[in-house]
Amino acid sequence: MMLTIFLTKNNQDKKNLNLNDNKYSYDIKNPKFTINSNKEKISINAKGASFINTDEILLEKNVIFISDKFTIKSQEVYFNRKNQTAYSKKNSTFISNGAKINSDGFEITNEGNIIEFNGKTKIVLVK
Amino acid sequence: MKLIYILLLLTPTLFARDKGQIEITTDEGIEVFQKEKYYLLKKNVKIDSDDFILTAEQVKAFFEKDLYDIKYIESEGSVKFISNDGVTVYGEKLTFSSKNNNIHVSGINSSILIKNITMKSNGYIKIDDLKGKFKIEGPDSLLLTENISIFGNNIEGEYNKINNINKIINLTVIDNDLSEIKTDKLQMFSSKAIFSEKNNLIELFDNVKVIRDSEIIIGDYAKINTLDESYKIISKKSNKVKILIDNNQ
User: Fold this and answer.
1) C-beta separation of B119 from B134 below 8 A
2) Backbone phi, then psi, for A44, in 5-degree steps?
């Protein structure tokens, strides 16, 4: 009985690793990272991640950056562990207290102090 | 066909900004500097809010607490600013403070229209709308109202808002060459001119020339009563006032 459960779970993990999509296979499943600056901590979650090189990781599917001040959602984000930077060239949505930004991509640099949204961008600010 | 027509009718409603919202669109994105508390909007920028609509090539917006609390704007490149209280501004560079309604516009063909007052300059125009003060400086500066036109390199003054109409209450015009003040009946030239609405008086200083119909009077100083447009001209230096009467006019 125990063995069956183990094998079933193992098979499920394998399936999860491929995320039910033959095109994708990830090095890390459900990765979680953190960018730490002096004042702010940014948590990063995604469904999968692949190593591009030693420092750079490609985060894919339901990528979410969460800090006390904002949330950014995108389908594909490149994260550099060494420089603690991140960028995306895919549609991204930024949500903060009273602000929603839709853009063709973004870049987070300077320990999260500078956030750049690229391409055609629409910002809606609400008091 | 009917569906397309209905969709076309609905489109403006679907994309309309809600009251209280600020909607910003750009062609080349936005950079948010959280520590410095400003954001940079790039290329073909439009800011649409309850208080104003601003279009420009680039805008730097400084905020207080969050992105909504815009306290100060620096914009450049074909700037157009329209406030909901009747101020329209055109220029190459514009700064606007939402706290005290200060506007500074500069560059070729700068202009500010405040309801019935038009200000233009190829230098800069500065307005403190709360205090009702303005300054126009630079080449081809002018100020126009319904009944008076003022031309000079440096025009500075104050205005009052009465019943939604702006009224100039005082101004000083200085020009290294000659300033010009034009009413329906008079054309006045001088190096410096001072207008006081309270005293119904225009004073002209140095290189004074007053033209009324075919009459041209030249002197060093002039006092013009703005109620009946009568005037008195004196010449301090030469003690002589020159009067020319052109019969051909």
Assistant:
1) yes
2) -125, 130
Across the interface, of B27, B28, B67, the residue whose CB is closest to A96 is B67
pTM of the predicted protein model: 0.79
- Distance (Å) from the alpha carbon of A61 to chain B's nearest alpha carbon: 23
Structure tokens at B208: 């004074």
Nearest-neighbour CA in chain A from B29: distance (Å): 4
Backbone angles phi and psi of B198, in degrees to 5: -60, -40
Whether A124 and B22 lie within 8 Å, measured CB to CB: yes
- Complex ipTM more than 0.95, yes or no: no
Chain A: nearest CA to B97, how far in angstroms?
18
- Distance from C-alpha of B13 to C-alpha of B51, rounded to nearest angstrom: 20
CB B160 within 8 A of CB B132: yes
Q: Is A106 exposed, middle or buried (0-12, 13-18, 19+ CB in 10 A)?
A: buried
For residue B34, the chain A residues in CB contact (below 8 A) are 40, 69, 112-115
pLDDT tens digits, B210-226: 998 888 988 899 999 98
